[in-house]
Specification:
- The protein is an alpha/beta fold.
- It has a single domain, classed as Vaccinia Virus protein VP39 (Rossmann fold), CATH 3.40.50.
- The protein is 42% helix and 19% strand.
- It has helices at residues 12-36, 53-62, 75-88, 124-132, 159-175, 185-191, 209-229, 235-250; strands spanning 43-47, 67-72, 93-97, 109-115, 135-147, 195-196, 201-203, 206-207, 256-257, 261-268.
- α3 links the parallel β2 (67-72) and β3.
- α1 packs across α7 and α5 packs across α7 (209-229).
- The longest helix has 25 residues, at 12-36.
């Protein structure tokens, strides 16, 4: 399956940014997973696990009687996830390099989860159908995604941040990423033959200016090579915005947005097969 041009890159700086971002996004992800019904003893697939933070969160929820398999196409990210797992002494998580849409497993999973991953898939409904084939009938599919355009920077009199976000969103859009996918999750899950929860969770993370400046500046630095490659801005202009104008606008703010609107949506796989193509059989996932 063809996916988007991954605009954030795969560098050590980006991996460190993802670890920082995970602390910001964890509360909504955890509430989503628990509301979806993920609990002790479950066997869970983490789709696009990256450097491992969602897998580590799920490992806490399922406990020692449960297990997590994290899968990602990025071998270096998986290597770092394995290093972090070993250093944390986590024994119920396994990481592997591959595509979660076609991962082979000894048995079907009780749930499949992911965060900020469907947005990079060219056909997320098809991806959800294939991911659901790895989940047992009656199992859970839960994702935490974003609605990039819903960020209150303009309304909060932060014109530099609002303009910089427009540049970041333009970069993602040029890459093929689906910027508003959070708001599409209910429909996409239904299209994939799942039974989506009608009342998903939603929030915009807020914080002080120093935290906010670092959050947006790090994201901008990861996107910088693609901004230049796509011809959306010149290096000097971006660096001036990140290092001076954005810092001047945000550093003394008592409160500011740290994220766009984030959506936590989950669904159940039907207990019987439907015409949607979702496999309702049990046994080995192939």
């Amino acid at each position: 399956m063809d996916d988007t041009d991954y605009a954030l890159g795969r560098t050590n700086a980006e991996y460190n940014r993802l670890i920082e971002q995970a602390k910001l996004l964890r509360p909504l992800t955890e509430r989503t997973l628990r509301a979806a019904g993920i609990g002790a003893g479950m066997h869970v697939l983490d789709v696009g696990c990256g450097v491992g933070d969602v897998s580590f969160l799920v490992s806490e929820i399922v406990g020692p009687a449960g297990s997590v398999v994290g899968v990602d196409l990025d071998a270096e990210a998986v290597g770092l996830a394995n290093e972090r797992r070993a250093s944390l002494g986590i024994g119920n998580v396994t990481f592997c390099v591959g595509d979660a849409r076609s991962v082979d497993a000894e048995r079907l999973f009780d749930a499949a989860v992911g965060r900020l991953v469907l947005m990079y898939m060219s056909d997320p409904a098809a991806a959800l159908r294939r991911i659901a084939e790895r989940v047992r009938p009656g199992g859970i599919v839960a994702f935490h995604e974003w609605v990039a355009g819903a960020c209150p920077a303009s309304a909060m009199n932060q014109p530099v941040l609002a303009s910089f976000q427009d540049l970041m969103w333009a970069t993602f859009e040029r890459s093929g990423a689906r910027l508003e996918i959070g708001g599409e999750l209910h429909r996409l899950m239904a299209d994939a033959g799942l039974e989506p929860e009608p009342a998903p969770l939603a929030e915009v993370a807020m914080g002080d200016g120093a935290v906010g400046y670092r959050r947006w500046a790090l994201l901008g630095r990861s996107l910088l090579p693609k901004m230049i490659e796509y011809g959306l801005a010149v290096r000097e202009e971006i660096l001036d915005t990140v290092e001076r104008r954005l810092r001047d606008e945000l550093m003394d703010r008592p409160l500011m947005p740290l994220s766009s609107l984030m959506i936590g949506q989950w669904a159940r796989k039907p207990r019987t097969a439907t015409g949607s193509g979702v496999n309702g059989s049990s046994g080995r996932a192939t």
